[in-house]
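Quick one:
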Amino acid sequence: MNRVVLFELSSQNPELQAKFFSTVFGWEVSEPQWAYSTAKTGSDEKPGLDGGIAQGPAEFQQGTRIKSK
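Output:
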């Protein structure tokens, strides 16, 4: 089985989603650039699985994309 190397969350309110994950799980979420923020879920001592939070298109308002290697 391939290992997951990246995730992307999409939402119609990515700022609220970023605030939620930052507050609840301690993720370090960057300021949005082109409706996309990077999310760092761990630290140098305890690495996590990093990804991003994006503005979802109207026809696909929310969801999760997972990339494996």
